[in-house]
Design brief:
By secondary structure, this protein is α+β, with helices and mostly antiparallel strands. It has helices at 7-65, 71-75, 132-138, 182-215, 217-253, 257-289, 301-318, 338-354, 412-422, and strands at residues 100-105, 111-114, 145-151, 154-165, 168-180, 297-300, 322-328, 333-336, 361-368, 372-379, 426-432, 436-444.
Length: 450
């Protein structure tokens, strides 16, 4: 029994499996890093937009509630009348602090009023406000300004707007919103992600290794077929080349012209065999590469059968075999590849003549019905042992009952099987050792390529 794979092939495929598994793992890690980075960007964007929206909503609410007040009077109160900033408000806990805290400043940047605590920030607002950069920009801009300030692990958005009466600057307002600890949150997410990724990478490695092994099964089969093909070809070529070599060596030693002529005749037979073998190998190579295409056309199968019979009749007479044919059906019009169907007829009839007894018979029956074409080729040969029947369509397979008196490469029936399958048909063989062999073929009459 031939080994399924050689040690070199196993090492090659195992190395390829590991590369595929590692490739999947690296791809997952890269994807995971991209997801974490995008998560950070998306969270940062949402925190930014939520903070800006909260500050803007607070300003809008203040404007609605203070419409009955005179902003000029509120903004221009004497600086000595401003309220001090309390460090804490006793009756409020940090959880009750407002989400947005605003401080107001006069036209000379003097503090007017404001609250010291904001929700989500464990330190006083006075550690962030006033933002002097925004204060300096307020008297030069009519548009709100926003900036993000980092304090320890916290990120805080500060919004600033100015108050104007005509061209006169009345003062400004700075509002603060705590965006929380994004870096801390992301650090936690990354930590959890790393733990999960470690487990997932291991699972991916195992799964990818298993899946890649399954995916490489066709590669293993292809390598095995290639190795078997090379071994079979070398075996088939070794015998005729050995015969040619020994025959020519004997011919050199012979002085009789008759012996030399016999050696030349024997050599020519072996050359014919090798030529036919090379032709069959070329056909199979084209089949495997997909270069051989089925080109359907309408032709007369009855006429084709008559032509093939006429061509093989001299060979049958030379071997003393009675060759006959019968046809059934209203007409022989068939849609298919005429070249390959002719090759199918030649292969089956050549086998029927080659593996036969002297004074035996070979018969072909062709039937064409409305939907189906049937073909039967039978002979009176020695038959095929039952254990060999499942393998007769394998490449290079030859029954143990055959010998060199009926030379063959073992490729003809493999080509015939491909022709039938390409026409979406079936081919079967039945045989009784000592009584003969019959090949039966069926395919659709109006077959068309896909």
């Amino acid at each position: 029994m031939k080994p399924l794979s050689t040690p070199t092939e196993r090492r090659l495929l195992r190395r390829l499996q590991w590369r595929l598994a590692l490739g999947f793992a690296v791809a997952f890690l890269v994807f995971d890093m991209i997801v974490v980075a995008l998560t950070y960007v998306v969270l940062d964007y949402h925190f930014y937009t939520d903070a800006k929206a909260a500050i803007t909503a607070t300003w809008r609410q203040e404007d609605l509630t203070q419409q009955h007040h005179d902003p000029d009077e509120a903004a221009t109160r004497p600086s000595g009348s401003h309220q001090p900033i309390p460090s804490r408000v006793p009756h409020l806990s940090p959880d009750d602090y407002p989400r947005v805290v605003s401080w107001r400043f006069g036209p000379h940047n003097q503090f007017l009023n404001g609250f010291s605590g904001v929700y989500g920030l464990p330190v006083g607002v006075n550690t962030i406000l006033p933002n002097h950069a925004l204060l300096s920009q307020a008297r030069h801009s009519h548009q709100p300004q926003f900036t993000v300030v980092e304090y320890q692990q916290y990120r805080v958005m500060v919004g600033s707007r100015s108050f104007w009466k005509g061209s006169r600057f009345l003062g400004s307002e700075q509002s603060l919103y705590s965006m929380g600890r994004l870096e801390t949150l992301m650090a936690g997410l990354v930590s959890v992600d790393l733990e999960l990724s470690a487990v997932i990478v291991v699972l991916i490695m195992v799964l990818a290794f298993w899946l890649s092994g399954r995916a490489l099964d066709p590669v293993r089969a292809a390598l095995r077929r290639q190795r078997d093909f090379i071994q079979d070809v070398s075996h088939e070529l070794r015998t005729p080349l050995t015969i040619v070599k020994s025959t020519l060596e004997l011919a050199l030693a012979e002085e009789s012209r008759t012996e030399v002529d016999q050696a030349i005749q024997s050599t020519l037979l072996e050359v014919d065999y090798v030529t036919r073998l090379m032709s069959d190998l070329a056909t199979l190579a084209r089949i495997d590469s997909g270069a051989t295409l089925i080109e359907p056309e309408l032709f007369d199968l009855f006429q084709m059968t008559d032509e093939v019979i006429a061509g093989l009749t001299p060979l049958a007479e030379e071997r003393g075999i009675q060759l006959s044919a019968s046809q059934h059906g209203p007409d022989g019009a068939v849609l298919g590849d005429a070249v390959h169907i002719r090759q199918l007829l030649l292969i089956l009839l050549d086998n029927a003549l080659k593996y036969n007894h002297a004074k035996g018979w070979a018969r072909i029956e062709v039937g064409v019905s409305t939907d189906t074409v049937t073909l039967s080729v039978a002979n009176s040969g020695p038959g095929i042992p039952a254990e060999d029947l499942p393998h007769v369509f394998n490449r290079f397979y030859r029954s143990r009952a055959t010998n060199r008196s009926a030379p063959g490469s073992g490729l003809g029936l493999a080509i015939a099987d491909w022709i039938v399958r390409s026409h979406r048909g079936t081919i079967h063989v039945s045989s009784d050792p000592g009584l003969g062999t019959t090949f039966e073929v069926r395919w659709p009459r109006r077959w068309e390529s896909a």
